[in-house]
Amino acid sequence: MSYKPSSIGNSLRPHAISLMVGGMLSLWATGARAASLFSFATNFSYPGTGTRTECDISALCDIALDSVTIGNKAFSLSQIGRVSDVALLNNYNGPPPSTGGQRNIGGASLDRGDFATGVALETLRAESDTTRLAQFNTSRTEQAIAETLGNNRQSIFNLNNIIDTEDDGIGGSWDNESVFTMDLLFNGGAAYNSLLLWERGMNSDIMLKPIYEVANNQATVLGEEVIITQQELDSAGFQIDTTEIRAPQEVGSKGITFDTDIKGVRVISTKQFDGPDFKIAAVKQTIPEPRALLGLGLVGGALAYTRRRQINKSC
Question: Measured by CB atoms within 10 angstroms of the end CB, which terminus of the chain is less buried, N or C?
Fold first, then answer.
């Protein structure tokens, strides 16, 4: 994971702090706020449902998330925050192949397993009314994105419904140009502090910015950007084969915890990220206060010092 300064608070320089309390907890701090990566287990099942009777090819059909396990704590599906609101700020749509355009150039689209329940939609256009741009759920496109990521109308949280991003991004542009930017809220802007990310293929990077405040139906206060790289992804233990690809691909996962509550996240892809294909959710973890962690470290150090003194006296 890497931090880069955003347009908000460019004068703040991130610094890293490592605290040893039973294990290594790495914190990336920016000002008074910090973030840390973690691994989690995806507990899933194959319900045998989809768009055809007796859907029995696991990578092509519905895949139901049952729970996630972080450390030794399990979070049930009812404890997992689903995407409910979307604001699509921009999305590059390449020229269609019928006009001579390349098929693998463009921004975000909706994808699903070949036989999975859900929607596959190639062209997602941002709000054309600039007075409503950046506001949540003002278009059918944004509502469709929310359903693909959150599955609020399905009976399951379907891991075989994802956002697909084309690998080549914007043809002929510089690497840092945005391919898409979208703001996401979980359960109507409820407070969470940890994000759960799944990425198909384990071959792309993705940029996330925590949303701390929402007003007038749009994100107003965001944190520093966090880039999760493909090298930092763990195997989620399952594969998916969606309409945009020709063979099953491994799905990777990674979590990120913030030291204060967030209401959502801004997701950004650029051409250099090689097209992240993702699913995202949120949970609320119990996070020890940084001062408490530091206190534990000081106590441990004091005990070690006292023990050394006792040993020295006995010699």
Answer: C
